[in-house]
Amino acid sequence: FKTGNRRMKIRRKILKQKYYLNVFNGFFLALGLMLLTFGLWLSCDRNNLFSVLFSSGENQLLAYISRMLLGVGSVIAFTSAMGFLGIVKEIKCLLVTYVSFQILVFVTQMAILVLIFIKKEEVHNQWNNRIDEVISEYGNESLAEQEPVWNILNAMQHNMECCGRYNVTQWEWNKNKENSTQIPCSCTKSSLKKWFCDVPRNSTYSMGCEEYLNTWFEKNVLILTAITISLLITQIFLITLTGQLFRNTKKNNIWPNE
User: Fold this and answer.
1) pLDDT of residue 1
2) Whole-number pLDDT of residue 253
3) What is the residue-wise DSSP string for 77-143?
């Protein structure tokens, strides 16, 4: 009778642990898919300034970031699927493998979080330098392959009603104008579809785009950081609960023989 009672208590614990594990594992999968989507967005979307700026030239920063996110997201999706099977079927070898992958992903996520904080300023500086480079190259007929970047810069200036990174005077650096007084048509309310326009300086957008660009950059860094921290917290619960489930499953297999 005591053995049966113990077995019943263990089964109740197992069912409760399986329920919470499946909930946290679902949350873990959702966060992993977010990372995967973030990586796909960076590598495939050619309508956002960050992707276009860093997908050309010698700087391979975008490729490294997107590959890392795609890799981690894929491993999380695989680990989560394996976890669901191990939890539902109470397969001990799958539970051990699941915890091993969780620890591996946990260490990787910690490394990503450290990299975000260490490299954030460096990436931000590269981002600003690349924008300055685009402004100096803008309209150069020998760099026709850069037109997608210029079009996105135009769209940003026109939609945000800003001009240059810090203000309109930055366009004085550009040597591809017919005369020194010209500025991009996107720095005005003009709807002309050409690179430069002859307009009075007082009819241009005076504010620079830096504030908008910094807000966009900080927002995306914050999203990535929030996803990473959420994953770390979720994994702590998952590793703890999986260990408890493994022990109780082992006990459940012992009691019937006593």
Assistant:
1) 45
2) 58
3) HHHHHHHHHHHHHT-HHHHHHHHHHHHHHHHHHHHHHHHHHHHHHHHHHHHHHHHHHHHHHTT-GGG
